[in-house]
């Protein structure tokens, strides 16, 4: 039997409707042409499909389709946003702001920029993972060019008040970049309400294919970017490369389904997450990481006292597909930098599980997960020489 899949924050299975739509643009019988080859019918069919998908992504963000740039995923979108802005505005400032709990693709960009002479303010969230907009305002200077804040944290599911931050940055003429990879289809997204200048999304976090994403680039007021990939001048000159029609169509369809399900899916998943948390709370020394009031429905991050983290994950691997945090940091043997930033000690941060639920999660899956975790935690605590010692 396959393990119960509770790692939707790492990747989601492609929705069958998305896969069927993608298949129409792969073979000679379908729209396989190069979207840039508009001199013939096959190219025009592909180009029309690309623009239809651009509209679908724009609709999910309440944006204009002309503001959507195709990328290979949220990591590239984050890199293009951050490096593209700092290249374009290098003569107008030298200060950047972000959070210590951002995704690695943001954190590592800012670390590289520090090495190139940019000054970065690393904001520390409170113990729930939330950042106060006042902290952002206090960090802003006349030299600030860009602020990056994730809409929904990929490890804890914590939702930030992007609209409050956007109000501050827009008033000061500072660009706001939002990594919305974990937010698309999970919470309502409106670039106008957020007053965001750049928004990164990824298909494979919302039941679309891997290898495709998009970057929203605001046109009014205009966010200027310097391209990071050069070639044929595709995507308004911001991202060269032949467009993968089938993947783009997949992202578009996934966004369409996300909008359709936004009124019902988060509520169903939130009920399952609460069922999971209630089941895990029956054990002693179980700690929820992040905010219970400001959390996207699909993520629950929990630390277990008195157990070895590596042994816990190894013991669960045959029954549950879960993770200890971001899939992009899985190669690291260190405890989660996100949880450490929230004040968790190394031992508890290391003995944490990120449960992430999705479209095909059932009550039976949740009950199986609670039983499996309880059995493993009880087994490991029984083996511990210090558990239960006063």
Describe this structure in words.
With 390 residues, the chain is of the alpha/beta class. The protein is built from 13 helices and twelve strands. It has helices at 16-23, 41-61, 74-88, 104-115, 133-139, 162-172, 191-194, 245-261, 265-280, 309-316, 337-341, 346-350, 363-383, and strands spanning 4-5, 68-71, 95-99, 119-123, 144-150, 175-179, 198-202, 213-217, 286-289, 299-304, 320-321, 352-356. The strands form three sheets. Strands 2-8-7-6-5-3-4 form a seven-stranded mixed sheet, with helices on both faces. Strand 5 (144-150), helix 6 and strand 6 (175-179) form a beta-alpha-beta unit. Helix 3 runs parallel beside helix 4 (104-115) and helix 9 (265-280) runs parallel beside helix 13 (363-383). The longest helix is centred in the N-terminal third of the chain and has 21 residues, at 41-61. The radius of gyration is 22 Å and the shape is globular. The protein starts with a strand and ends in a 7-residue tail after the last helix. The mean pLDDT is 96.
């Amino acid at each position: 039997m396959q393990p119960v899949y509770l790692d939707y924050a790492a990747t989601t299975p492609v929705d069958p409707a998305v896969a069927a739509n993608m298949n129409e643009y792969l073979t000679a019988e379908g729209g396989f042409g190069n979207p840039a080859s508009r001199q013939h019918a096959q190219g025009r069919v592909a180009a029309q499909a690309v623009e239809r998908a651009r509209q679908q992504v724009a609709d999910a963000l309440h944006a204009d389709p002309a503001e959507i740039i195709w990328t290979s995923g949220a990591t590239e979108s984050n890199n293009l946003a951050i490096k593209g802005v700092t290249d374009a505005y290098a003569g107008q400032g030298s200060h950047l702001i972000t959070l210590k709990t951002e995704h690695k693709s943001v954190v590592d960009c800012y670390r590289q920029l520090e090495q190139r002479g940019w000054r970065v303010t690393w904001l520390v969230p409170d113990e729930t993972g939330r950042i106060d907009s006042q902290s952002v305002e206090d960090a802003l200077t006349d030299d600030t060019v860009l602020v990056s804040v994730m809409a929904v944290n990929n490890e804890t599911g914590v939702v930030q008040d992007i609209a409050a931050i956007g109000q501050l940055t827009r008033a000061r003429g500072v660009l706001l970049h939002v990594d919305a990879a974990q937010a698309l289809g999970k919470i309502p997204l409106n670039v106008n309400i957020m007053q965001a200048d750049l928004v990164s999304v990824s298909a494979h976090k919302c039941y679309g294919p891997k290898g495709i994403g998009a970057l929203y680039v605001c046109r009014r007021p205009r966010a200027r970017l310097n391209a990071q990939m050069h070639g044929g001048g595709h995507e308004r000159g911001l991202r060269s490369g032949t467009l993968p029609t089938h993947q783009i169509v997949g992202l578009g369809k996934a966004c369409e389904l996300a909008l359709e399900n936004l009124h019902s899916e988060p509520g169903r998943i939130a009920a399952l997450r609460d069922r999971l948390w209630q089941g895990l709370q029956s054990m002693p020394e179980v700690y929820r990481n992040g905010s219970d009031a400001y959390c996207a429905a699909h993520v629950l991050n929990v630390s277990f006292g008195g157990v070895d983290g590596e042994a816990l994950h190894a013991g669960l691997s045959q029954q549950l597909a879960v993770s200890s945090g971001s899939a992009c940091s899985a190669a690291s043997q260190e405890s989660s930098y996100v949880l450490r930033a929230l004040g968790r000690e190394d031992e508890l941060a290391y003995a944490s599980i990120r449960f992430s639920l999705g479209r095909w999660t059932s009550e039976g899956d949740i009950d199986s997960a609670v039983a499996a975790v309880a059995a493993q935690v009880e087994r490991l605590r029984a083996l511990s020489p210090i558990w239960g010692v006063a």
